[in-house]
Amino acid sequence: xxxxxxxxxxxxxxxxxxxxxxxxxxxxxxxxxxxxxxxxxxxxxxxxxxxxxxxxxxxxxxxxxxxxxxxxxxxxxxxxxxxxxxxxxxxxxxxxxxxxxxxxxxxxxxxxxxxxxxxxxxxxxxxxxxxxxxxxxxxxxxxxxxxxxxxxxxxxxxxxxxxxxxxxxxxxxxxxxxxxxxxxxxxxxxxxxxxxxxxxxxxxxxxxxxxxxxxxxxxxxxxxxxxxxxxxxxxxxxxxxxxxxxxxxxxxxxxxxxxxxxxxxxxxxxxxxxxxxxxxxxxxxxxxxxxxxxxxxxxxxxxxxxxxxxxxxxxxxxxxxxxxxxxxxxxxxxxxxxxxxxxxxxxxxxxxxxxxxxxxxxxxxxxxxxxxxxxxxxxxxxxx
Length: 384
Ligand code: FDA
Description:
Keywords: FAD, Flavoprotein. This protein has helices at residues 12-23, 39-43, 69-75, 78-87, 107-119, 167-174, 196-199, 231-237, 254-264, 270-277, 280-290, 301-312, 368-383, and strands spanning 2-8, 28-31, 50-53, 61-62, 92-94, 99-102, 123-125, 133-136, 139-142, 145-152, 179-185, 189-190, 205-212, 215-223, 227-229, 246-249, 314-316, 320-321, 329-334, 352-354, 362-363. By secondary structure, the protein is an alpha+beta fold. Strands 1, 2, 7, 8, 9, 10 and 20 form a seven-stranded mixed sheet that branches. Residues 9-14, 32-34, 39-40, 43-45, 49-50, 129-130, 153-155, 158-159, 163-165, 167, 328-329, 356-358, 367-370, 373 line the site of dihydroflavine-adenine dinucleotide. Dihydroflavine-adenine dinucleotide binds next to helix 1, helix 2 and helix 13.
């Protein structure tokens, strides 16, 4: 069949672009190898979909070109998406840090997007592998179908068991686009054998400021049997590269707090002082790591300073990440140099578009990645 646009991928970005283009009068086909739309939406936000964030701004996105997301995020904002959610009478609430979730279920977001697609007369073909893509004067050919426009919306390789693949990069390269090296992001970090101490406290969580390479996030850290997780770690993982240390501020101004403990309880050991500041099992693990055996009253200022360094700037060297199997998103992707920031259209191949996670734009944890899917999908949908 002949369409105006073929959209590869029925995730958030593809559905949104399809609905917008369809409602504007374009004949649109969405292809996906999954058997239903929006698999990632359905499991997102613990089943309630953290669909956007009130604090969306370009600084919350990683990209080789940090200016690239500005235009799309400004033209279709979090407030526009929230208005759509309200038009569909989906009840929502704000959790923490501006994160907006459905009161009911993530399925409501998928139903909303498919209803919008139905309003635009969009066709779907599921269980369809994307084979050879032809390109000639008539536009693009995918299987039996032809269209003047082709939208790459197949996301990144995070969570292969949900059907995620890196096919977006192959298609982009086939049309002469560059790809910024993809890496797993919003992903737990692993610690090597020398940090086994922390594996023993698997399950312990506490508030922290985590820092990597200039980026810092104040949220919870979770110690796991493989290493570190929790929102603060997922956030810094997007900035982490092999060999880079991660610094955890577990106790701000720790030296002052330890001196105060020495004054109040000179006969106690370090473990007792740490137990006042941190969960017990973490206090035990840190006390063994620090190895200050004497009573607090016998410890010098220098010894307390040295101990404090493990509390306000605990430096760990992750051995790696838990990889694409556990990564919520992929950092990197189709190089934005080759795309229009206004329409997401290729500068090299007229009629070719790339949107969503496939592109080298990655948001923070907390609804930022879906907003990028909506905003970039909207931009392409309007342009088709
Ligand atoms: P997405 O990956 O959603 O869609 C791509 C589509 O292409 C899929 O339907 C896939 O089947 C299809 N496809 C891929 N390869 C194909 C091939 N070779 N042939 C045919 N079809 C193919 N973000 C957020 O903002 N808030 C949140 O609460 C969460 N929560 C969350 C939880 C979990 C567990 C994960 C893994 C991720 C999140 N995210 C999130 C991130 C968010 O899900 C992600 O950024 C968007 O879904 C990206 O949307 P896209 O449409 O770009 O890709």
